[in-house]
Amino acid sequence: TMNLDKSLETSEDSGLPKLPVPPLQQTLDMYLKCMSHLIPEEQFKKTKPIVEKFGAPGGMGEFLQKKLLERSEHKANWVYDYWLEDMYLSNRLALPVNSSPVMVFPKQNFRSQSDTLRFAAHLISGVLEYKSLIDGRALPVDYARGQLAGTPLCMDQYNKVFTSYRLPGPKIDTLVAQKSTVMPEPEHIIVACKNQFFVLDVVINFRRLNEKDLYTQLERIRKMADIEEERLPPIGLLTSDGRTQWAEARSVLIKDSTNRDSLDMIERCLCLVCLDEPSGTELTDTNRALLMLHGGGTDKNGGNRWYDKPMQFVIGADGCCGVVCEHSPFEGIVLVQCSEYLLRYMRGSPSKLVRAASMSELPAPRRLRWKCSPDIQAFLTASADKLQRLVKNLDMNVNKFTGYGKEFIKKQKMSPDAYIQVALQFTFYRCHGRLVPTYESASVRRFQEGRVDNIRSSTPEALAFVKAMDAEKMELLWTAIKAQTNYTILAITGMAIDNHLLGLREIAKELKLEKPELFSDTTYATSIHFILSTSQVPTTEEMFCCYGPVVPNGYGACYNPQTDHIIFCVSSFRESAETSSDLFVKTLEGCLKEMQDLCIKGNTEAKPTDSTEKMDGNTKVMKNGSKS
Ligand code: COA
């Protein structure tokens, strides 16, 4: 195994530009602009001089900026390592709900156990097909859509889909990767069934198993899992715990060589296939989302997982299917691409199975063994309790808004994404009477090794709009949409502030300098406490993505805009008295309707004279973020 960022598979020869380091003053101005209306005036009065001091000529900011520029010269992407650590690897929270997004597939109708296994074998065939496209560098390059459409995007994230593993550590995790090769090497998948883990070899004697072989092997696994006397404790539960706790448990686990072997097999697998027991709950969209996010807890399928692995395909006997994804190696967009490929593959290529089970010469799949000391038992009990609490805590609402979709918004000559973001701000304001630091993921895959930066959607213009309740509203909606669209363009061209501030903070740490006051100021802490965490994850197949809130008193809001409807997946925690997903969604429906009425009314009234220069996606943005 090797460290990912040292991988030779960088995109240097992709011809993509490097991520720029934004000008210091631009970032500092933007930071103040983003925060001034979100914090008390008194606090802002303290923060402003701190920021000015940081940015003063000859000051700390200039020095760190120079260091960052130097760093950017010898790295393909100056922020990648910092960002990966900050966003994922140093985060100690449990992966389920807090970090791992899921993809929820359309509900399947399995009439029998063999139906379920047929589906699993078909899906695994698709996975192997997709993996060989990745390994053969045969995936078509993605191109940007929407704003500034048409430029090619960095494809690095795909190489990590079936090769990486997030190893827990006491203070920080490590993202490790297998070297991928074009030659068919021994390869395996881990099948989880009844909280047991089985090794399913998919390449034997340089030959990839066909679907019929896979089916036979899955049936054998199913039979082995059914033998009650051989059942081992649900070790997978440990991976659902906080990262520090799991790291501690793992360090005890690896003292035994049997456990070491089992861990090694899991860490080197392509992916997991989790054959889930029926959940016994009605499979509404919301319930399927919940089951995918945490497995329904210890009495359902909570232990039938291994959260460190990037891809876990869940196939429930009751038809509840989807993917759980460890987020650190790639973004939701890659998850969507892979999932859509699989669904299309399964629809387009008829299952290659004959009915009768074949007597196979293949070696039997192997059950992974665990030696469970009393210490490990204690860790397991603690992990189980933690998961149960998380299950009780998650408040989820998946809602298909059918009032209108992208088409209506485009007819208003507005960016659908910006419009939805303004609607989310409006909703938050209605529910809570204020705006809060908001995160919207913006892809920076236009650049080498690009991941994401943040669009801070709670703009001053959004606040002005949501506060206004008079005739000026339409004008203010326009202004808010423009501000949001401008920020989006800044972000996707590498000129947003979050990655830059992170870079300045981390390079100071790296140089062992005293932490600049800017970063110990409460305003900075507030600015990165994302009460509203949002993301557009569009799909072309019938499925949806969702995830949990990133802070205890916050919301996760994932949306999937379609032509005539928009799917919203809103999550929050029940333990917070401030939040309610149901209320948020209900309010959102009302807000979207009000905005529609406003647009329709606006259309029938005299248009503002400058209406011809409305957003056209090509709007040029000057360095300070205003439109030219
Ligand atoms: N008038 C008419 N149509 C417009 C318009 C306007 N003023 N502005 C945009 N449109 C059109 C676009 O041309 C596009 O058309 P298409 O459907 O034919 O492609 C469509 O509306 C959507 O564009 P828009 O809503 O502006 O958003 P976008 O697709 O550019 O998305 C981001 C914006 C920030 C979401 C996107 O750039 C991004 O970064 N996506 C990745 C997010 C991510 O990583 N998610 C996963 C995180 S795990």
Distance between the termini: 49 Å
Total number of strands: 18
In CATH terms, the superfamily of the domain at 94-140 and 152-394 is: Choline/Carnitine o-acyltransferase, domain 2
Overall CATH architecture of the domain at 94-140 and 152-394: 2-Layer Sandwich
Rg, alpha carbons:
25 Å
Q: Give unreliable regions as ranges.
A: 1-11, 606-628
Shape: globular
| CATH class category name of the domain at 94-140 and 152-394 | Alpha Beta
Count of helix runs: 19
The molecules bound to the chains, other than polymers, are:
coenzyme A
Domain Choline/carnitine acyltransferase: 19-589
Keywords: Acyltransferase, Neurotransmitter biosynthesis, Transferase
Biased composition (Basic and acidic residues): 607-617
Protein name: Choline O-acetyltransferase
Structure, described:
With 628 residues, the chain is α+β, with helices and mostly antiparallel strands. It has a domain at 94-140 and 152-394: Choline/Carnitine o-acyltransferase, domain 2 (Chloramphenicol Acetyltransferase). It is 41% helix and 14% strand. The protein is built from 19 helices and 18 strands. The longest helix has 24 residues, at 581-604. The chain is globular. Bound molecules: coenzyme A. Coenzyme A binds at residues 145-147, 331-333, 410, 413-417, 441-443, 452, 488, 492, 535-537, 615-617.
